[in-house]
Amino acid sequence: MSRYQDIKDLAKRWKVPLDVLINNAACTPRTRQETPEGIELQFATNVLGYYWLIDGFTEILKASAPARVINVASYWAGGLDISDLEFKRRSYDNGKAYRQSKQANRMLSAAFAEKLKPFQ
Ligand SMILES: NC(=O)c1ccc[n+]([C@@H]2O[C@H](COP(=O)([O-])OP(=O)(O)OC[C@H]3O[C@@H](n4cnc5c(N)ncnc54)[C@H](OP(=O)(O)O)[C@@H]3O)[C@@H](O)[C@H]2O)c1
């Protein structure tokens, strides 16, 4: 769920309707790690994975309408620094990285709810 290529391949192989996509996977590594694709692991899993899944499955979800997407965020969401999403300029803090990833989940939900509204 943290690798673009894996998610793209999964969407390509998917051949049946999809009624509900639940984006639930999340991690909070104590130290800064990167995926093999070179993205900070927590941002890749908790945010980009959700985005790639919704984006990769959009046509399948539309064809399965009425379908739903659920993004699991958190009451702890907040502190999103849009200028440093991957902690390249700040020292890594797993709590801050988690909070900002969950804030991004909320924003993703609002953005996709608007974008996919005509297909509800
Ligand atoms: N626990 C809380 O208090 C709490 C509060 C608010 C929101 N949430 C949210 O609820 C959701 C679930 O959290 P949880 O507490 O159930 O956490 P959890 O027990 O750590 O479960 C997280 C799940 O995500 C999977 N995962 C992590 N990285 C992955 C990756 N790169 N690819 C595929 N799967 C991956 C894990 O798989 P493996 O087991 O194979 O590692 C695990 O099944 C998360 O989105 C979290 O932010 C949790």
Structure description:
- With 120 residues, the protein is mainly α.
- The protein contains 3 helices and 2 strands, in the order H-E-H-E-H.
- Strands 1-2 form a two-stranded parallel sheet.
- Helix 1 packs parallel to helix 2 and helix 2 packs parallel to helix 3.
- The longest helix has 23 residues.
- It is globular, with a radius of gyration of 15 Å.
- The structure holds NADP nicotinamide-adenine-dinucleotide phosphate.
- NADP nicotinamide-adenine-dinucleotide phosphate (NAP) binds next to loops.
Short key terms for the protein model shown above:
120 residues; mainly alpha; Rossmann fold; two-stranded parallel ribbon; 3 helices; globular; binds NADP nicotinamide-adenine-dinucleotide phosphate
Short description:
With 120 residues, this protein is mainly α.
Write the layout of secondary structure elements.
Blueprint: H1 4-13, E1 20-23, H2 41-63, E2 68-71, H3 94-115
Parallel strand pairs: 1-2
Helix pairs in contact: 1-2, 2-3
The structure holds NADP nicotinamide-adenine-dinucleotide phosphate.
Residues 1-2, 24-27, 45, 72, 74, 102 line the site of NADP nicotinamide-adenine-dinucleotide phosphate.
Number of DSSP strand runs: 2
Under CATH at level 1, the class stands as Alpha Beta
CATH architecture assignment name: 3-Layer(aba) Sandwich
What is the averaged pLDDT score? Answer: 96
